[in-house]
Every structure is written in C-alpha cells, then in structure tokens.
Amino acid sequence: MAIREFLSTRQVFTVEDFAARFPGSQTDRNLLSRAVKRGGVDRVRRGLYVSKTGRFEGTTADPLDVALALAPDAVFCYTSALDLLGVAHNLTNRVQFFTTKPTASFTYDRVRYLPRSAAGTRPPPLGLLSPTGRSYRVTTEEQTLIDCLTNMAAAAGPDHLLHSLSGMAALEPDLAAETAATAPASVRARLGWILEVKRDDWEVADQTLAGLEASLGSGPSYFWSSSTPRDRFWVKRWKLYLPRPEQEMASWLTL
C-alpha cells in the first residue's frame, strides 16, 4: 500500500508533504487519520506528524528533525546551539531555533520546542553535519555567546553557560565585541568579564577589553539578577555584580 510505504520512509512529515505525495486523495487522508488513531503515526501538533510505522516503530524522532519539518528555515540557537557546537555542559529537553515562520511553542515526547524571532542584522549561520549526515544551521560561536548573554534564561542560566564556554576552544573576541556593540551595556559588561577570564585561551587583545570597558557607561550591571535574590559580588572593572564569588565563577570558565 502506498501510504504504508510513505510512512515507512518518512519519519517526520507535514500535512503539505503528505498532500504532495497523495494530492486530492480523501481515501489516503482517511487512512492517515486511522494510522494516527491506531498509534502508527503521532500527531505532534496541527499539520505535523511523526511516523511509528515500519522501521520507525519503537524509535524516537530526532528533535532537530521535528523542528526542521515545522520550520525549514530554522537556525538553532541558545542551548541548542551550544549542543550542536559540541560544548553544552548539560543536555536539556528544549529545542530552540530562530525562524521567520510565526509558530507557537509546543511539547512533544517530553521535549519543549521554542521557536524564536531573531532581531536585527545577524551573521550567516554555520552549517553543521550530524553523525547521520544531516545538515543543520546554527548560530556562530560569537552570536551564540551574545544571544546567551542577552537572554541568560534561554542559556539555562549562568552556571550552565559558563561551564559550556569552558569547552569552547576558540572564539573571535573582536567579532564578539562587535556583535555586542548594539546590545545593552549589561551584555557588554558580562562579555568583558568573560573575555578577561578567557584572555589566554581565546587570545583576547588588551585593546578589545579596553574598548568594552569604555562602552559601559555609569553602571552597575548584573550578570544574572537585579531583583531579589540580587547579584551581590562586585567586579570593579566591569561595573558588574556577579551571583557567586568571582573566583568561583571564573573556575567554571576554566575547568
């Protein structure tokens, strides 16, 4: 049967994919509905399906493929970018991606999918190959860092971000500073502190640090929280309050 062949070869598909294969066929649409009812297909959300038929029986769809089926222009970001870049300290049950397609967040198979809108001019994403040969687009190291410093919650908090950055072998400090130029002063303060701690690992020039320092204004800035419980460990150069003692947080970056 043609529909079973389709479900045995397409693990993740949209209603548009199905209609392109079976145009105008009410019978096949009815068969798809029956497959969903009997558990041979998961209806992830409206218009998006995961096959559990044939070789896909008992398997789990790659969350990145689910996101790509929904938003073919997806650029993975925040914790998903850290994961694809090979530095994420912990695995999370969130898939985060920029897309131009208006899409609401949803949960499927215990994974939370968080589509986001990207603001401003951004550098071209990186194209990374998975072990299975699938290509995924991901924000660059520098853009990922600035995104995470701008939205620390999306980075799973400062502990996760700094431990993840400890595994990042290389980064272009000047490009990171340039990317942060239009961000709030608090982002430049956080970036300056990180670059100073990582200056030897990432070959950060003195003038890069000086430029960031000169851009901070009167301050103060907070690394994580300006509300109760408030960051309270002061770093004078960066006019920055840290949530934990500086030496402790610096050790997270250099492990």
Describe this structure in words.
The protein is of the alpha+beta class and 255 residues long. The protein is built from eleven helices and twelve strands. The strands form four sheets. A four-stranded mixed sheet has the order 4-5-7-6. α5 runs antiparallel to α6, α6 packs across α9 and α7 crosses α11. The longest helix is centred in the N-terminal third of the chain and has 13 residues. The radius of gyration is 22 Å and the shape is elongated.
Give the arrangement of secondary structure elements:
Elements: H1 2-9, E1 12-14, H2 15-21, H3 26-38, E2 41-45, E3 48-51, H4 63-70, E4 75-76, H5 78-84, E5 94-98, E6 106-108, E7 111-116, E8 126-129, E9 135-138, H6 141-150, H7 157-165, H8 173-179, H9 185-197, H10 206-214, E10 221-222, E11 233-235, E12 240-242, H11 246-254
Parallel strand pairs: 5-7, 10-12
Antiparallel strand pairs: 1-3, 2-3, 4-5, 6-7, 8-9, 11-12
Helix pairs in contact: 5-6, 6-8, 6-9, 7-11
Put the structure in a nutshell:
39% of the residues lie in helices and 17% in strands.
N-end to C-end Cα span:
56 Å
User: How much helix, percentage-wise, in residues?
Assistant: 25-40%
Number of strands: 12
Topology order in helix (H) and strand (E) letters: HEHHEEHEHEEEEEHHHHHEEEH
% residues in beta strands? 15-25%
Low-confidence stretches: none
What gyration radius follows from the Cα positions, in whole Å?
22 Å
The DSSP helix count reads 11
Trace the largest sheet across and list its strands: 4-5-7-6
Quote the average pLDDT: 94
What general outline do the C-alpha atoms trace?
elongated
Biggest beta-sheet profile: 4 strands, mixed
Derived structural class:
alpha+beta
